[in-house]
Recover the amino acids of this structure.
């Protein structure tokens, strides 16, 4: 049994300053240990398995005499019950360290997921959108929570405030949360159903995105006005204007043009081969180059060491907003991406080219799976004819309303 001494009152305990062990009574073996530097702490001396052990109960005065007495009494009861309180404490500390080592917050999980996957993403814009949406909407709500603890209520707390106002952003954010939680489950960090899953889960609690907000299509130049626009664009001598003209001639996307390299161009054969890692669908795309497109490329300056077709004044690739700013300076409200719609409308309404040829020209994936299964080629030869017709249409003099004379009726 531990040593039992005379019971000391709180005031007497407070006056214990001489270095050494001072047994304070109340509970057998309870002592206040004063170190050589003057710090004081509670010690309970017990016998466990026939061996004397000293067990710390906390610092004084943070742990009061009353609290030390209560802790000592509980520990004595454990010893009498055949338990080793020191072993139990070590086990609890080991469990806590293991818990802390395995703790992964949603924010850290998302960052680890992005670090592992963003090399496979097509562009930095996609990675930036991932980071921005999570930082803005998800991290403030669930960022510090362990991934295993995130439940349906947490996901709804993230999504509901923006579901009606920013539906497209909210829908994409939901998908990103779902992916991060699936990643955590695959790593054994959580179990059970994914609370961010849409089908059979959130679709019963939130309205479908398509029913909340109408899809806003990119504003496009009418195909009847595109020739007039090309005339205006060619009057602008900037490199950005040439990039935009090339985009229109080839009906490609902004990122594909801004990242285009000379190594992708075969001037002799008139082919631009865009590698899979720069295509939205992740599939290599060959673009037939019309005579005006080749003429434009041949007119471009080529600086030594720069592999890009179109470069800014700093010899770097144009930013995402560079081509848009050209349109704004020209006083146009339509978007850069809208020129693909212009091409699609022109081809569908004024030519006899089959739909699949037009869709291939735009590097679209055919929605009909059966049709897509048979369309294994890229219809390059037919697309070359389509792009030739498009270039010829763009070269036609613009027809303006003021240039058309009304028919005169004969006097009868």
């Amino acid at each position: 049994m531990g040593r039992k001494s005379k019971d000391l009152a709180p005031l007497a305990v407070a006056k214990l300053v001489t270095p050494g062990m001072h047994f304070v009574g109340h509970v057998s073996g309870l002592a206040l240990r004063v170190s050589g530097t003057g710090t004081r702490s509670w010690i309970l001396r017990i016998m466990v398995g026939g061996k004397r052990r000293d067990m710390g109960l906390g610092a004084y005065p943070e742990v009061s005499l009353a609290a030390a007495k209560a802790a000592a009494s509980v520990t004595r009861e454990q010893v009498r019950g055949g338990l080793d309180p020191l072993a139990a404490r070590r086990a609890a500390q080991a469990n806590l360290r293991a818990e802390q080592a395995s703790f992964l917050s949603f924010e850290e999980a998302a960052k680890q997921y992005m670090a592992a996957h963003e090399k496979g993403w097509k562009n930095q814009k996609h990675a930036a959108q991932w980071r921005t949406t999570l930082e803005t909407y998800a991290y403030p709500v669930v960022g510090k929570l362990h991934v295993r603890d995130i439940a349906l209520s947490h996901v709804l707390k993230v999504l509901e405030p923006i579901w009606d106002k920013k539906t497209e952003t909210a829908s994409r954010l939901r998908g990103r949360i779902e992916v991060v939680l699936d990643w955590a489950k695959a790593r054994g960090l959580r179990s059970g159903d994914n609370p961010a899953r849409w089908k059979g889960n959130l679709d019963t609690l939130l309205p479908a995105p398509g029913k909340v907000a109408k899809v806003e299509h990119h504003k496009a130049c009418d195909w009847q006005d595109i020739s007039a626009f090309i005339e205006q664009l060619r009057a602008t001598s900037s490199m950005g204007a040439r990039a935009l003209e090339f985009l229109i001639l080839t009906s490609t996307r902004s990122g594909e043009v801004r990242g285009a390299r000379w190594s992708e161009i075969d001037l002799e054969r008139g082919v631009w081969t865009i590698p899979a890692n720069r295509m939205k669908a992740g599939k290599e795309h060959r673009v037939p180059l019309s005579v005006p497109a080749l003429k434009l490329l041949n007119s471009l300056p080529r600086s030594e060491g720069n592999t890009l077709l179109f470069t800014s004044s700093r010899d770097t690739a144009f930013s995402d907003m560079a081509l848009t700013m050209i349109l704004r300076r020209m006083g146009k409200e339509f978007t850069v991406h809208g020129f693909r719609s212009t091409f699609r409308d022109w081809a569908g309404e004024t030519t006899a080219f089959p739909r699949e040829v037009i869709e291939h020209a735009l590097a679209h994936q055919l929605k009909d799976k059966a049709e897509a299964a048979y369309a294994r080629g890229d219809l390059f030869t037919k697309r070359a004819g389509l792009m030739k017709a498009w270039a010829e249409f763009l070269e036609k003099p613009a027809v303006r309303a003021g240039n058309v004379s009304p028919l005169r009726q004969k006097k009868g």
Remarks:
- Residues 369-375, 400-412 have pLDDT under 50 and may be disordered.
- The CA atoms of residues 49 and 84 lie 8 Å apart.
